[in-house]
Amino acid sequence: MRKGVNHTDVKNTNRGIILQLIASGRDYSRAAIASKIHLSKMTVTNIVNELIEERYVCESQIEENTNIGRNPVQLDIAPDAPKVIGIYLSRDAVHCILTEITGKILYHQFTSLCEETANSLTQKIIKLIQDAASVTTDTILGIGVSSIGPLDAEKGVILKPTNFFHISDYSIKAILEDCFQMPVFVNNDMNASALAEKLFGMCMDTKNFVYLGISNGIGSGIISDGKLFQNKSGFVGEIGHMGIYYDGALCSCGRRGCLEAYINMPVILEKLRLASNNPALTCSDFVTVAKQESCHAVFQDMAEKLSYAIINACNMMDPQIIILGHEGYYLPDSYIEYIQQEVNAKILAASHKYISIRKSSFAMKTPIIGSACCLLNEFFAGNFFTSNHPKSSR
User: Fold this and answer.
1) Which ranges of the chain have pLDDT less than 70?
2) Tens digits of residue pLDDT in 107-120
3) Which family, according to UniProt (predicted)?
4) Residue 238 has what pLDDT?
C-alpha cells in the first residue's frame, strides 16, 4: 500500500519556505509568495496569518499598485520575532553573533584563543553565548555553529583539526545543548559559508555553486540542486587535497602534491613578504602589493594553480558560480579575471556554458554569518514546527 502524504509535514515545509522568502528582504506580498511557490492564495494567506499571530511575521508598507483593486501588503519579519545565536570557531578565535531570522547581525563579540584545553574552550564559548543572549528579550530559536574541520556534522563533533591545541573529538553540539537546553546545529565553516550565500547572499536564486575558501588550507562548500551537499564523514569538498603534482611538496595531511601544500595563506603571505620586502604585510595589503612587479609572480602562480583546481572541480560538479571566500576574498580582481578566463576556456562545457568567479558577498564575515545559517537552514526547512523538536528558549 502506498503511504499517504503527511499533511502536517507538508504544512511545516510550506511555513519554512514562506518564512525564507520573507526573510530574504525581497518585498513579498501574499500574492507574490503564492505565485512564486505555486500554492493557492488561500493556503498562503492562512499560513501567513498564522505566522503573524505567532509573531514571526508582520505587515509593513503598502506596495503601490496602479491596477484597479486593493494594493498588496508587503510582509516583513516581525521586530520581535525569535533570534538566533551563531558561534564561529576558527583556529585563533571564537566569534559569537546574535542575528535576526533575516541574517542581520544585531550583536557581535569575539575572544582570542591561545593554548586552550577542551575545558577552557568550552568556558569561553559559554560566556560568549550568555553575553549574546543577555542583549535580547526575544525568544532564541537555538544555536548554529560553524567550525574548522574535519567534523561530524550530524553528531556535532569536531574531530581532529590540525594546529588546534591538540583538541579532538570535541562534542560541541552535546555540550551546548546540555548547557542551554536549546537546539544546536553544527557544520564546517566552508559549508556554513555556502549556506550564508544561499540564504542571504548572491546565490539565493542559484541552484548549483561552490564556495571556495582559502585560509590555512583550502576547502569548499557545495550547493547542488539548491541543497547543501555533504555526508556523515565530513570529508566532502576537500578540494585542497586534490593532487596537482605527483610526488610534490609534503602536505599537512601526510600526502604529497596536494593543492593545499602550495596554495594556503601562510605560504602565500610568506612569499609576498619576501617579494615586497615587507615583513608586516597582511591579506588586506594584496591590492597594493599586486602593483609591484616583484609580487606579480606570486599572485600569478597562485591564480594558475587555483585555475587548475577549479577546472577539475567544474568538470565534476558543473556549478554555475564559484565564490572565492575566507582570505581568498582579498585576491586582487585582475587575478580573479584571469582565473575566470582560464576556467571558461578549458572546462569541458566551454562551448555552451559560462562560469562566473566572484568574491564572497560578506567579505570576511561569511563564515561568521554562516554560523547562524547552520540553524536557519533547518528552520527554513520547516524542522522547527514539529511537536517533537527541542523547544527554543530564552
Assistant:
1) 1-5, 61-70, 232-235, 237, 386-394
2) 999 999 999 999 99
3) Belongs to the ROK (NagC/XylR) family.
4) 78
Q: Which residue has the cell 584563543?
A: 113
Give me the pLDDT at residue 246, please: 83
Could you tell me the residue ranges of all domains in the chain?
7-77, 83-193+367-381, 202-360
pTM (predicted TM-score): 0.92
The reported pLDDT for the residue numbered 388 is 40
Domain 7-77 maps to which CATH number in 1.25.40.890, 2.30.110.10, 3.40.50.170, 1.10.10.10? 1.10.10.10
Q: What is the pLDDT of residue 389?
A: 41
Give the sign of the dihedral formed by CA 283, CA 285, CA 288, CA 294.
negative
CATH superfamily of 202-360: ATPase, nucleotide binding domain (3.30.420.40)
Counted residue by residue, the chain has a size of: 394
> In angstroms, what CA-CA distances link 379 with 16, 160, 246, 314?
6, 29, 45, 30
393 grid coordinates? 528558549
Max Cα distance, the chain (Å): 74
DSSP at 293: H
DSSP alpha helix (H) spans, 181-226: 189-200
CA–CA gap between residue 81 and residue 83 (Å, rounded): 7
Task: Give the Cα separation of 61 and 173 in Å (integer).
Answer: 40
Q: What is the pLDDT of residue 394?
A: 40
CA torsion 286→199→105→135, rounded to 10°? -150
CATH topology classification for 83-193+367-381? Nucleotidyltransferase; domain 5 (3.30.420)
pLDDT recorded at residue 386: 54
What value, to the nearest 5°, has the Cα angle with vertex 104 and ends 103 and 110?
A: 95
Under a CB-based contact definition with an 8 Å cutoff, are residues 209 and 223 in contact?
yes
Asked whether this chain's domains 83-193+367-381 and 202-360 adopt the same fold, the reply is yes
